[in-house]
Q: What sequence folds into this?
């Protein structure tokens, strides 16, 4: 089987859940970094992007767009969607709420200070953490959607890994969530991935700047010369 290719900025961002799913399903892959507006223009011109957006996952001769579709495709392919419609419903419901929960961690690097990022994440965890804990308790298996590990556990663990980097004590009051996290991160594929060069570091100002430069978008307003990459538009 040929290597899967994941094309995105040189960082975690919206490609990270897919990397965790590739890792846990032991799907060998490479990161294809897009570093410049010219790289992106070339990628767009190639016609490889179904909706003109990154990330792009090339796997099994297919070009996948939308990280939510990527994780579900890899889940079906890897047997991580539970065993019946009820499991699948929980997987979808939980991965949906995890996407909402994870968004706060994704946005933290774009905040004017670490303190503001941590405050947002603490508030978000206060809202969702106890709900996740209750659902794991109700499920009874130690996993959140089904009796066995599913992609919902994997994306939840990925989001928690980001929260823990900012707020190391965040799981202190949610032991079932902490146990789920520990269970996912000791699976062989995730252990290998986290120790590999495929895992990018926590997103920081350099990542935010690199992404804005590639997309020719404004930087967060607190950054100096926030419009430095915005493509010039001709006045009409
Ligand atoms: N919901 C999409 C979001 C994709 C997205 O917004 N990608 C950004 C980069 S992070 C992009 O390609 N922006 C350029 C554009 O939309 O034209 C996903 O999760 O894959």
A:
């Amino acid at each position: 089987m040929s290597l899967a290719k994941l094309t995105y900025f040189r960082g975690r961002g919206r490609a990270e859940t897919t990397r965790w799913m590739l890792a846990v399903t032991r799907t060998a892959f490479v990161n294809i970094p897009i570093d410049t507006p010219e790289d992106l223009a070339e990628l767009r011109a190639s016609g490889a992007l179904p909706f003109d957006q990154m990330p792009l996952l090339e796997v099994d001769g297919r070009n996948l767009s939308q990280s939510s579709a990527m994780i579900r495709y890899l889940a079906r392919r890897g047997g991580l969607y539970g065993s019946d419609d009820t499991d699948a419903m929980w997987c979808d419901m939980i991965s949906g709420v995890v996407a909402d929960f994870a968004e706060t961690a994704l946005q933290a690097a774009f905040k004017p200070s670490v303190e503001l990022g941590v405050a947002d994440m603490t508030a978000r965890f206060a809202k969702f953490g106890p709900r996740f804990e209750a659902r794991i308790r109700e499920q009874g298996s130690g996993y959140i959607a089904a009796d066995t590990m599913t992609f919902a556990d994997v994306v939840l663990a990925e989001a928690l890994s980001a929260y823990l980097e900012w707020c190391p004590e965040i799981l202190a009051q949610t032991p079932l969530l902490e146990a789920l996290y520990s269970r996912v991160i000791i699976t062989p594929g995730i252990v290998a991935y986290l120790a590999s060069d495929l895992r990018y570091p926590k997103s920081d100002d350099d990542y935010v700047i690199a992404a804005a430069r590639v997309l020719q978008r404004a930087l967060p307003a607190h950054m100096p010369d926030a419009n430095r990459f915005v493509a010039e538009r001709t006045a009409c």
